[in-house]
Design a protein that fits this description.
This protein is α/β, with parallel strands linked by helices. The protein has a single domain, classed as 3-Layer(aba) Sandwich (Rossmann fold), CATH 3.40.50. The chain is 26% helix and 30% strand. The strands form 3 sheets. Strands 2-1-3-4-12-11-10 form a 7-stranded mixed beta sheet. It has a 3-stranded mixed beta sheet with strand order 5-6-9, with no helix packed on it. The chain binds glutamine. Glutamine (GLN) binds next to helix 4.
Length: 199
């Protein structure tokens, strides 16, 4: 029997609906029974098996997570329930242990053994698309970068899944997945499928 999955998407700011849409499409194409919840209240986290932290403005998302108690509850879910989390762009920054250019004193979740740098490819006008190779994917993937961070280093059990030259842009640590680009802004379902398979 196909297992039922409940996916939460942190819905305080950023590319929330785009993730919801691509996830719905994936559920239907893979005949996965599941539900999607836009998470704005910490009590909603009880029912989710996997959580997406979308791209957006890291400073804003971080502040709201702390203020609403979602920050502590997400950490609880990682520790107690070993919940799967995919963080894209700003979400990737928030999963990290350290931001090297943290002039805004953003509070990270400190969940993954990696250091990141925000806006590492330049400003909005330096946003771009590029074909990348992802470990375990048989064909190249067209990745969309918008004011993207890079992962400067990973250590311990945090594994690198993709790079552009020497810059790490995707990493996985057990059930946590950090992605510097925007898989929700393409029609390619493979990254959301990869996440679904982790759950
Ligand atoms: N540069 C943004 C930040 O660190 C993230 C950009 C994004 O999520 N598209 O806040």
């Amino acid at each position: 029997m196909v297992k039922r999955v409940n996916i939460g998407i942190v819905g305080v700011q950023g590319a929330v609906l785009e993730h919801a849409n691509i996830m719905k499409k994936l559920f239907s194409e893979t005949n996965t029974p599941g539900e999607i919840f836009i998470i704005r209240d910490k009590n909603q986290l009880e029912k989710v098996d996997g959580l997406i932290i979308p791209g957006g403005e890291t400073t804003t998302i971080s502040k709201i997570l702390v203020k609403t108690g979602l920050y502590d509850k997400i950490l609880d879910c990682i520790k107690q329930k070993n919940i799967a989390i995919m963080g894209t762009c700003a979400g990737c920054v928030l999963l990290s242990e350290k931001i090297s250019n943290n002039d805004k004193e953003i509070k990270c979740l400190n969940a993954m053994k990696m250091h990141v740098k925000r806006n590492a490819f330049g400003r909005q006008k330096e946003s771009f698309e590029q074909e990348i190779k992802i470990k375990g994917f048989s064909k190249p993937y067209n990745a969309v970068f918008i004011r993207a961070p890079i992962i400067e280093k990973t250590y311990n059990n945090c594994e690198v899944l993709a790079k552009i030259k020497d810059k790490i842009i995707m990493a996985r640590q057990d059930k946590l997945l950090a992605i510097c680009f925007h898989p929700e802004l393409t029609d390619d379902l493979r990254i959301h499928k990869y996440f679904l398979d982790i759950i």
